[in-house]
Amino acid sequence: MKVLVDTHIAIWITEDSGSLTRNIIQVVTDPGNTVFISTVAIWEIAIKYGKGGLRLHPREARAGFRLAGLTELAVTADHMEEVASLPQYPDHSDPFDRIMIAQALSEAMPLLTADKKLWRYHQTLVIPA
């Protein structure tokens, strides 16, 4: 199965964080799964790093993602168009999340996330962490 991981999950994987749940570990270590990280996650990390909200440099994050065996998923025009089909929620407009949801839908792969706000976008899309 192909699986897209949300930014925070990818960071937890590379840091071997205590936040990793049994479900996350099972999904990312299953040899039958190909685990993807969106290039949008690198952009998100770069912005947060630049603002001082994250100490992880995007170059270090990317190296860690590679070492963890994550495959980069580049953003395409099809992914961007898919964003237009997503429902609008007054309490959620994060552009990083929305493009990752669109990527997951376009690529027919679930998104592994602990962010409960994303769970409502598509019942079969999200794997709760």
What would you say about this model in short?
The protein is an alpha/beta fold.
Characterization of the model:
The protein is an alpha/beta fold. The chain has six helices and five strands, in the order βααβααβααββ. The chain has a five-stranded parallel sheet with strand order 3-2-1-4-5, with helices on both faces. The longest helix is centred in the middle third of the chain and has 12 residues. The chain is globular. It starts with a strand and ends with a strand. The model has no long low-confidence stretch (mean pLDDT 92).
User: Stretches where pLDDT falls below 50 for ≥5 residues?
Assistant: none
User: What's the total count of β strands?
Assistant: 5
- Structural class determined from secondary elements: alpha/beta
Largest sheet: 5 strands, parallel
User: With helices defined by DSSP (H or I, 4 residues minimum), what is the helix count?
Assistant: 6
Provide the spatial order of strands within the biggest beta sheet: 3-2-1-4-5
Overall shape: globular
Strand residues, percent: 5-15%
> Percent helix among the residues?
40-55%
User: What is the typical, i.e. mean, pLDDT?
Assistant: 92
What is the string of SSEs from the N terminus onward? EHHEHHEHHEE
Distance between the termini: 16 Å
